Fold this sequence. Notes:
Pfam families: ABC_tran (PF00005), TOBE_2 (PF08402). Belongs to the ABC transporter superfamily. The longest helix is centred in the middle third of the chain and has 18 residues, at 168-185. The chain contains nine helices and 20 strands. By secondary structure, it is α+β, with helices and mostly antiparallel strands. It has a six-stranded mixed sheet, sandwiched between helices. Strands 13-12-11-14-20 form a five-stranded antiparallel sheet. α2 packs parallel to α4 (138-150) and α3 (109-122) packs across α4. The protein has helices at 44-52, 94-104, 109-122, 138-150, 168-185, 196-202, 220-225, 230-235, 333-336, and strands at 6-15, 18-28, 33-37, 59-64, 67-68, 81-82, 156-160, 188-193, 205-210, 213-218, 239-248, 254-258, 261-265, 278-284, 289-291, 299-311, 314-321, 326-332, 346-351, 357-358. It has two domains: 6-225, Rossmann fold (3-Layer(aba) Sandwich), CATH 3.40.50; 238-358, CATH 2.40.50.100. Adenosine-5'-diphosphate (ADP) is lined by residues 15, 20, 38, 40-46. Magnesium ion (MG) binds at residues 44-45, 192.
Amino acid sequence: MAAPMIEIDRVAKQYGNHAAVADVSFTIDKGEFIALMGPSGCGKTTTLRMIAGLDQPTSGEIRLWGRRLNEDAPWERDAPLVWQSYALFPFLSVRKNVEFGLKQRRLPATERRKKADEWMERLGIAGLAERGVDQLSGGQRQRVALARALALEPEMLLLDEPLSALDPHLRVRMQSELVRLHRELGITFICVTHSHSEAFAMADRVVIMNEGRIQQIGAPREIHRRAANRFVAEFVGGNNIFTGTACVEADGSIALVGPVGTVHAPAPTEAGIVTGAAATLVVPADRIELAAESTGSGNEVAARVVTVEFVGSTVTVFLETEGGGELRAQRSLHEMENTPLAVGQPVVARWSPSQGFFLPA
Ligand code: ADP
Ligand code: MG
């Protein structure tokens, strides 16, 4: 196996008594698109700034191709950073902004111009070359910032909340454009975002952080299907989290007795759940079907409709059981077209036991 491109090895960053980053280790392969995701203040930007060389770790090591980077200055790292605010020079034209890094690298003017033209063309801003950046829309500025960084032809591109200043429909468009750029360029992208939909839409692997620590690393699908802990299950959304008392069944599966009634799921591979212990079961909302009547198979919970939420082509139905348990089911609008879902209506929520998983105790 090839050596990882970047190694973040037990890195911490302390500000006074506060650990902005507590103890973070992960590796990044060449050409990966990595998203650092987590709530505001969890240490994402600090981690990115340490990779960029704008901050020094208090302890631990950052390596590029096996070589310690900690003491290298930002300009020695070949890792330009695109900021949320884009940090463009407002008094310079688009072209001069894009040429800026190349000028610092003392590239001759004709070469500079050629490269800048190339990258402006590639990012669809060639027609804006002579404009001042203060005369651009948010989306256009974003493209200038990207062109300026990519004109340096770096080995990796660092992005800090690159889409958060854009309005929603533009954000979705830039998302796919970043994915396309990443695929075409083949370089490593490390992108910080607090939005799980953004991270999951773009990244090959997502690093989920909370309070300066990594909670889970994995491909979006993996994380969606199997959250490592309660924080992740809640943060990525779309999950039902049922708590109750466990009961190990004769076949080794586990029954959970709680506010939603008695439901079953496979025992986790790591030991730890015993009869009588408190346990937490996660069932993704898109795995729960709604029916008018019981079929007597799988997990079935009798409930009533509390609210129905339509977002795009997805319907989320919030339900309440007689015991006061809450659950939600997420279906496609198409599938629910002929299902009456009046508030207060009784329905049966149903899922296969294998769709649920217990969180580690
Ligand atoms: P995120 O990007 O995930 O929102 P940051 O990495 O910016 O979070 O910050 C992590 C924590 O470190 C926060 O509590 C923040 O207040 C603190 N922090 C960041 N930079 C500094 C600094 N220069 N001085 C003191 N505290 C800081
Ligand atoms: Mg930040």
